[in-house]
Description:
Pfam families: PNP_UDP_1 (PF01048). This protein is an alpha/beta fold and about 270 residues long. About 30% of the residues lie in helices and about 25% in strands. It has a single domain (about 1-270), classed as Rossmann fold (3-Layer(aba) Sandwich). The protein is built from six helices and nine strands, in the order H-E-E-E-E-H-E-E-H-E-H-E-H-E-H. A five-stranded mixed beta barrel has the order 5-8-7-6-9.
Amino acid sequence: MIKHIEETVEYLRDKGFESPEVGIILGTGLGQLIDDVDIIKQVSYNHIPNFPTATVEFHKGKLIYGKLSGKKVIVMQGRFHLYEGYSLQDVTYPVRIMEKLGIKTLLVSNAAGAINLNFKKSELMLIDDHINLQGKSPLAFRGVELLGERFTDMSAPYDAEINSQFESIAKQNNITLHKGVYVSVLGPQLETRAEYRMLKLIGADAVGMSTVPEVIVANHLKLKVAAVSVLTDECDPDNLEPINIEDIIANAAKAEPNMITLFKELIRTL
């Protein structure tokens, strides 16, 4: 993996990806932040050596380098998921690349279902902690100690100072920003009523199929990390309705401007 990382980093540096400060991973349906980036360079995932091979869903996936709120950023326009058949090393490979290129902070967004029924559709949740139910770890491979501490501390995976700044920005902009625990499951099927009840019992406030692997690796690399969930549906097991993808996309679109405000204003303060 070390050789692959070196090859990928060299390719991107040759393309002009120089000294980024912040990495951003955009979740499903959350791509409008790109409109606010002053793009300097962009490369399709398919053209980047050793990058995961894009699936049909992400054939337009791009790694974008530019300026946002006065800072140099790298933005992943489209992420990889375990449910697409990738390995955890594939899913988290871009985080390792962004760190080698120079980022010190990683900001993550995702679309999630609200298990805490005090949280409503199209609101945002700041992730304060997480539960990994994907069944694996992105650090469980031979030679991981050559890339960072094998037994990575996860007592505080999300940066408290950045989270505090997010909360302050939300208050200043009259944005509803809940704080809670995100649980990551494998997917791609949605949860049953019994599963939603179980997730609530173990302390989850929102559920999704991403983010946790990237956050684990970011901690492995000692990056500052923060993550925000866009709540796209309400997971009430007593009144559960069949999934409506169009409704989920509409709810994500409604919440996205608030997420963009949070990210832009936070980056300005870094």
